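Entry 12.
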Amino acid sequence: MAEMLVQFLNEVLGACWNVGLHVVATVLDMGTNNVKAVKLLGSARSEPFFQFQNQAIASIYDPPHLLKCTHNLFLKYDVQFKSECLDSQLHVIAKLEHIEKLYKHGKDFMICMLYKLTDTHLAPVTQCAMKVSLAAQVVSHTVGAGIYCLVSYGKEHCHHSFCFHLMVRNTVIIHSVFILW
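Predicted 3D structure (C-alpha cells):
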C-alpha cells in the first residue's frame, strides 16, 4: 500500500511540476502507510525532507492528528521528562490524574473553572477519542492555569512538577507551569 502511495504522490507532484507549481511540503496524518510512504521517498525523522525534481519537499504531520495522538497517549501513559523551566535536575512526571483532580475539584464551585470539560473528555469513548476539539480542551491553557492556581493556593500536596508545552491554534505555544502533588 505504501508503494502505491509513493507512486500516486510522484504522479501528483509531477503533474504539479508540469503546470508550473512547485510543491514545498506534503502534509500527512500519522497513518502507518503514509509514514512508510514518506520514508520510502527518503524523508527521515532527523531530516524530514525528500527530493523531487532536485527540490527538497518537507514532510509535515497534520497538527490536529498530532494533538489527538498526544491526548490519546496521555490517557494511557504518564509522561516523564526533564523540565527546562525548573531549576531542578529531577525528572518531571505528568499524569492524567492531575487533570482529573482539577476537574473533580472544579465541579464543587458554582462558577466552574473548567467549564468546557466533561466526563467524556477524561474517558472518551471510541468516536470521541477522534475529536480534535476534545483533545485541545483537555491539554489547553485553561487546564494548565487551573492546575497552577490550585497548587499556588496550596489546595494540593506536591510530589511532582510538571511543565507542559502545547502547540495550539496557528503554532502559538502555550507554556504553563504545573506544580503537581
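Annotation: The CA atoms of residues 78 and 92 lie 10 Å apart. The mean pLDDT is 76.
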